[in-house]
Write a structure and sequence with these properties.
alpha+beta, globular
Length: 182
């Protein structure tokens, strides 16, 4: 719910720089699909990317059908980016929408997207801009692994956590607990 300038200022300098590069130097095309614009091609592209990144078929066909249904009912958006106009999408993101708040759901970046500097950053930034333009007040990128607990996680999990954490200096604690009834 802050201004775009405030949001950009709260990002780590490297993220800010990568977004500028993706927006102004490379000008990666980014498309956002919602209930009014979702196509079979767009959704199947994300599903295929996700399976390729996972190295196997990730999730049942029922799960993917339900995921698509979220977008079709207006409860999620799909954001896809390509390295240049006319080229295939190489990175994507989905966010769930609920009561004027949004929550990161999943993303995938193909190997050819890994070399496209700032493409993942730009996808997140375009997601934020889309949400802001529609009066969403929050976008939660998910859990961040505290540095003190990094040793129990994979290098990939730590890299994803650091990527997310650099979009904002606002972090809230997540308390864990177990409640047992006897």
């Amino acid at each position: 719910n802050r201004s775009e300038e405030e949001i950009r200022r709260s990002m780590r300098k490297g993220h800010h720089s990568d977004i500028n590069h993706a927006e102004n130097v490379k000008r990666y095309p980014v498309d956002i699909f919602d209930s009014a614009t979702l196509s079979d091609e767009a959704f199947l592209t994300l599903e295929k990317m996700y399976h390729e990144v996972a190295g196997e078929k990730a999730g049942s066909s029922e799960r993917w059908s339900a995921t698509r249904g979220l977008i079709e009912r207006g409860n999620a958006i799909l954001v896809l980016a390509r390295p240049a106009e006319g080229e295939a999408y190489c990175a994507g993101n989905m966010a769930i929408l609920y009561k004027q708040r949004a929550y990161y759901m999943l993303s995938a970046t193909l190997p050819e997207g890994k070399g496209a500097r700032g493409i993942g950053h730009l996808i997140q930034w375009r997601t934020m801009q889309y949400l802001k333009s529609r009066a969403y007040t929050h976008y939660e990128l998910g859990w961040v692994i505290p540095e003190t607990l990094e040793s129990g996680h994979s290098a990939k999990e730590i890299a994803i956590s650091k990527f997310k954490s650099h979009f904002s200096n606002e972090k809230l604690p997540l308390l864990w607990g177990e409640k047992m009834y006897v």
